[in-house]
Amino acid sequence: MARGLVIHRRVNPGVNWALPTLILLNGFTYAAAAARDTEPVNEPDKALYSIYCDAQTGLCWQDPQKDAYKPADPGLVATEAARYCDELVLGGYDDWRLPDSDELRALIAGNEATEPGGQCMLTIGGGRNETLFRACEGGQPGKGPGANGCYLRPGLTGTCNKTGPPQATQYLEIWASNRPADDADGWQAYVSFDRGALGYNHVNSAGDVRCVREGRGANQTGLAPANRFVARAPEAADLDPCEVSDKLALHIRVPDKLANPPDRLMAFLYRADKWRFPPAGPPDGGTDYNTVMQPEFSADGEFRTVLPGCTFYREHTLEGEYRVYVQLLMEERRPPMVMQGDYYWGSNTEVFELPFDGIEHRGTQQNLELTLWPVVR
After folding, report:
1. Which of 50, 60, 100, 223 has its CA 20 to 30 A from that of 284?
2. Has this prediction a pTM greater than 0.70?
């Protein structure tokens, strides 16, 4: 099976796309991109930065994060985030790098569980399961003590409410450099300053960047990068593994007559060996098409959708045992977590083996009928 980078420009009905949907696949194949430009950039709209040095840790930080005040900035995937810091020339320094989660964690304020020494157990060299504990989920979004409601320590500036593609369902997290020991190819750590949360996200997800370097000295302000960073454009690939994967045809019902139109329906696959209800992290299967904005249920309270047996970013088809999770949010919410008044369903007893025949994906489709449960908390 060919693996490469794919851009899909199909539009999910009912979704107002600001940008083409970007689908990133393994075996990154990039089109030719401009080389690093070390010429000074003096564009009048160029964002200015400061350098904030912490005498206690001996670290100096880019402040604010990259393109903090550009709401339309889509963020960067993990490899591009690392390249951005590697190439950054700011304040006369060119030794910037992507920070690890321990270093970023030291910037959190207002949420003791995720501050250094807190109950959140995410550790460098640990596994993905470490972040499944509630202690890592952070506080109430946008209620931090720092700038713009972020959970940032005093002295730092920035934003924490930039939404990312494909459907702006949650705010961009800040990438860390470390990856989990049990899945280093697919996942990378982050800190989310809108909640003061820690976790792992897929390396092909979009995230924000705040670079760091070792050093001590006076803080600097009013700085423009001395290099021009150009995000590498993806090269189209021919084969979409989701098209050839086995699929579940979901026939979804709601138990009650909906008083108002729902905001979104989400249906995804999660690995059975890491199952938790409701799930606490990104899905293992299903794509952006399985987030349906303003889904239109029939008069009988029914909705149909197809859940493909492939990874969210279309790297490859899935193999092994998986469980299905579906949630229906009745109002807009970031992050899109269920609350009282919403509906959800989880296959606590039913495990689906992919591919269905245990050998290879053949595009086979199985039906799954389910009735959502009201969330009562």
Report:
1. 100
2. no
